[in-house]
Write a structure and sequence with these properties.
By secondary structure, the chain is α/β, with parallel strands linked by helices. It is built from ten helices and five strands. Strand 3, helix 4 and strand 4 form a beta-alpha-beta unit. The longest helix is centred in the last third of the chain and has 17 residues. The relative contact order is 0.14.
């Protein structure tokens, strides 16, 4: 499927529904920007009304509370995940916790505090939004099947590089906020191997005329192609 040359076109019944008011809390600002862009482009049944990089920015916003909040498990602020989830729940918002730290302990803490679900940041955004629909009780009808979503404006399926499994895993981990050494450790490979995977990813995007030499550019490419972690 190719992109509409002007803007994505969605079925009339999709635009007529009551959209879920969504907020995102993540202190990785480039990732936050990419998440926001992806959702605004690809999830018309959600209305992203608040993107916050700090806890206080979230709770002090005039748009809070929302129907649903995505919260990053690991924030640099000294506010526990339990306090964040319980505050959102008390305000009337449902919570989905996203984390690159996908451990039993972190999952149990989030769910015990009242989060609706706990998702790994390694999941494609399509899967994250499908989980959000389940949490909000939305019908996964024809309008919401994965295949209907067009690529972002200006991007065609031909422009999407073909990545190996190792390159996809390295890319997903890297854009989730991990350093190259951390990517290597998570993949259980040598540092040079992880570095090579990421170099090949950048080269493939360059050959597709989609710049990815800088980390911010690579995160945007990952968001556009559904690899965002």
């Amino acid at each position: 499927m190719t992109a509409d040359p002007v803007s994505p076109t969605y079925p009339a019944e999709t635009m007529a529904i009551n959209r879920v008011r969504l907020a995102i809390l993540d202190d990785h600002e480039v990732l936050l920007d990419s998440l926001s862009s992806w959702i605004s482009t690809n999830a018309p049944d959600f209305d992203l009304v608040l993107s916050a990089s700090t806890w206080l920015q979230l709770v002090h916003s005039d748009n809070f509370p929302t129907d649903l909040v995505f919260i990053d498990f690991q924030l640099r602020e000294p506010v526990s995940i339990e306090a964040r989830v319980r505050t959102c729940r008390a305000a009337g918002a449902k919570v989905i916790v996203l984390s690159s730290l996908d451990t039993r302990e972190s999952r149990d803490r989030a769910l015990a505090a009242g989060a609706a679900t706990f998702l790994s940041k390694s999941l494609p955004m399509r899967d994250v939004m499908d989980a959000a629909r389940t949490v909000m009780g939305l019908e996964a009808g024809p309008s919401y099947q994965r295949d209907w979503r067009p690529p972002p404006v200006g991007v065609t399926t031909q422009a999407r590089p073909k990545l190996s499994a190792g390159e996809v895993q390295a890319l997903t981990l890297y854009v989730s906020g991990l350093s190259t050494p951390e990517v290597a450790e998570r993949m259980n490979v040598q540092y040079e191997t992880a570095k090579t995977y990421l170099r090949r990813v950048r080269e493939k995007y360059a050959r597709a005329n989609r710049p990815a030499s800088k980390k911010a550019e690579l995160i945007r490419r990952a968001a556009e192609d559904g690899y965002l972690a």
